[in-house]
Design goal:
The chain is mainly α. It contains 18 helices and no strands.
Length: 494
């Protein structure tokens, strides 16, 4: 009975998480379109320059304790209170560090206004620290409905505040306000609605026990965050705020495209892998099916986005954002690897190889940092972007090698399974680009023609040769529609 209840909670949680994910993504996308027309690339660049400092500070405040509390079966009041006070003290120390280093950071970027922006935006750290325990308790108890509702409400309110401030000429401060509002609303709501509040208990034993588990997660998140954010640090230092803004918009848009395509599938892979972890033959087959299906869907869509990037940016954000187009196209190439490496990475985590996962995360992120810094030094901005893409593909090849070694789905076999998809998508891209170029069409008509030609070539290959990836994707669609019909039939009978 308890197991059935847990399964029901998990299934409901996945549904509400999907609702939250796509609702907030849609609202955020609308927000991005509106703000891109009201704000300048320099405004986005200023926030992008500070992202690495804010992200690293949040990693230090959590220090892996959030994951440790979720992982521990029955955390005590002493555990929660100990972590709460640690979070508060760390947020104070880090805010003071940012406050007093703000002039040096502004001088580093040669942008004086960053001093004031960082000191105000740094207040998010306090709000974040007060909110961590309640947020982890909600996740641990699988109350995803509550989390989804408040997240959607917060996103809408933050959008209204930000757009109003941007419209009245507040510029970069509207983005600062967006971050503060997005942190404050959930914090107030959770403190009012959750039963837990800290007591005076502080236990060094709890601290040592939780940090023993959380330290690995902390170091992993620290390396990952630094590697992901270092491009913004380098671009902000060596280029003007406008260039940083164009890069930030391209990065944000490419991430939205990648996550909107692969988000739900990636979200559900871990529990699926874990459920069959002791049956290696089934696990191999599952990794193969999921990877092939994901590639069949994501590869052509990302190729199409690269193909129509210019009209897409003009339509959504206006012509002033055209310089973001080549950055977006390059980052989409890395996004192809990002989608595929996640499903392989989760397979390693599902079989309990946490130490292997940790060690290779450090290796991957270290190589990523070297590639980005080296690319910048040798070839400038384009070298940095190339290094970022190479880093994504390096991570993918590491992950499939680990899957090959520890699970048995050989890396060469996976590459062979995915090669036809990439070859046909690239061929569709080339044919579409060449034929549309002969017609000399206007910007938006040209984009529609490119999409049509690409779709015809790709679908013709699918229907004629019926590759396994196509049959996998089709079986998922059929399974979904049959369940819908069955549900509708049962409702009508009732």
């Amino acid at each position: 009975m308890a197991t059935d209840n847990l399964k029901q909670k998990a299934a409901t949680g996945m549904i509400w998480t999907a609702v939250q994910k796509y609702s907030t993504m849609a609202i955020g996308f609308i927000s991005s379109i509106i703000l891109a027309r009201l704000l300048t690339p320099e405004d986005y660049g200023a926030i992008g320059m500070l992202a690495i400092f804010m992200s690293l500070a949040q990693v230090f405040i959590d220090a892996g304790f959030g994951s440790a509390l979720i992982q521990k079966k029955n955390p005590t009041q002493a555990d929660y209170s100990t972590v709460f006070y640690f979070n508060i003290v760390m947020s104070l120390l880090l805010y003071l560090a940012l406050f007093f280093s703000a002039p040096a950071i502004a001088n580093f970027y040669r942008m004086p206004i960053l001093c004031k922006i960082l000191r105000v935006q740094g207040l998010v750290l306090f709000i974040y620290a007060f909110n961590i325990i309640q947020l982890n308790q909600i996740r641990k108890s699988l109350e995803f409905k509550k989390l989804s509702i408040i997240t959607i409400i917060t996103t809408v309110v933050a959008l209204i505040v930000t757009v109003t401030m941007a419209y009245t000429g507040c510029g970069v401060w509207s983005l600062v306000a967006q971050n503060l509002v997005a942190a404050l609303i959930p914090c107030v709501y959770f403190w009012i609605t959750t039963k837990w509040h800290p007591t005076k208990e502080y236990s060094w034993q709890s601290f040592k026990e939780l940090f023993g588990f959380g330290s690995f997660m902390f170091l992993t998140h620290l390396f990952t965050t630094f590697s992901q954010r270092i491009s913004g640090l380098l671009i902000g230092r060596w280029y003007d705020p406008g260039t940083m803004g164009f890069y930030s918009k391209a990065s944000e848009t490419s991430k939205q495209a990648t996550l909107s395509i692969s988000g739900v599938m990636i979200q559900t892979t871990y529990p699926l892998y874990a459920s069959v972890q002791d049956d290696r033959e089934r696990l191999i087959n599952m990794v193969k099916r999921i990877t092939s299906t994901l590639a069949y869907i994501t590869v052509p869509i990302l190729f199409v986005l690269i193909l129509i990037a210019k009209p897409l940016f003009v339509l959504l954000f206006s012509e002033k954002w055209i310089p973001s187009v080549p950055y977006f196209q390059i980052l989409c190439i890395g996004g192809l690897a990002g989608c595929l490496q996640s499903v392989n990475q989760q397979a390693i985590a599902a079989i309990g190889k946490s130490k292997v996962f940790f060690v290779w995360t450090i290796v991957k992120e270290s190589v990523g940092i070297i590639l980005q810094v080296g690319g910048l030094v040798i070839w400038g901005l384009w070298g940095l972007l190339a290094g970022k893409v190479l880093s994504s593909w390096f991570s993918y090849f590491v992950n499939i090698t680990l899957v090959s070694k520890h699970i048995g789905y050989k890396n060469v076999r996976q590459l062979q399974d995915l090669a036809p998809i990439f070859i046909v998508a690239a061929l569709s891209f080339a044919i579409s680009y060449y034929l549309s170029g002969l017609l000399g069409l206007t910007l938006y008509v040209d984009a529609l023609v490119k999409i049509a030609i690409f779709a015809v070539v790709y679908l013709a290959w699918s229907l004629f040769f019926k590759p396994e990836s196509y049959t996998y994707a089709l079986s998922i669609v059929k399974m979904y529609t049959s369940k819908r019909k069955m549900k509708k039939s049962n409702t009508e009978e009732i």
